[in-house]
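User: I'm curious whether this sequence folds into something compact or stays loose and floppy. Could you predict its structure so I can see for myself?
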Amino acid sequence: IRRTTRRVYNDVDNFKTMLPGAIFVMDVAVHNIASEHGETMFTISRDIKTGYFAGFAMTLKSEMTGKLKNMIDGIRQSFGGDHRHVLVRGMHMDNAGEQMDTCAQFQHMLATLTGGACTPIYSDPSREVSKHLAESAVKALELRMKAICLQQSLPVSLWVRAYQEAIYLANRYPIGRNVVSRDGDAVRPLEEMSSRSAGWHRAGQPT
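Assistant: Here's the prediction. I'll summarize afterward.
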């Protein structure tokens, strides 16, 4: 076989950030059964780069602004000292409900966050693919939540606690795209979000 001069280049997706914790996706899962404390909604967020999950339960849609602020502040306080870039500087979301671009209170909250503004990145209603990352995050976490409820035979009203346990576990297990070894070990989302990931080399072992 003759040698060819063709070279294979790896193209980097310009629309996918390579900075841990920089850009998140967000969507809301609505349940028709109230939790033990009366919540009927659970907001799910996921970092595009690391796969790190975060979320909170809501009783009313009007709670979105305050609870989202607390979630972003919590992420920045927990991991802000480990990175030089601003964490949660962008959030993919639907242009609907309390997070609409016409909601002055919500937009003011994002613009005046401690540590830097968070830019809302709204999906295109005419392109379903523009929100597939957020919908995939909701599906992945909802399946984990249901699995926990089934395995532990939990009362249906404890679905918020099951979501919280699902987030805890998901952040401590490697995601598929990071696994390169046969034993399935790789950097975890929680490690990649923290400074501990800086000590990992190609083999996935701490230095």
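Summary: The radius of gyration is 19 Å. The helical segments are 64-79, 104-111, 132-152, 159-170, 189-193.
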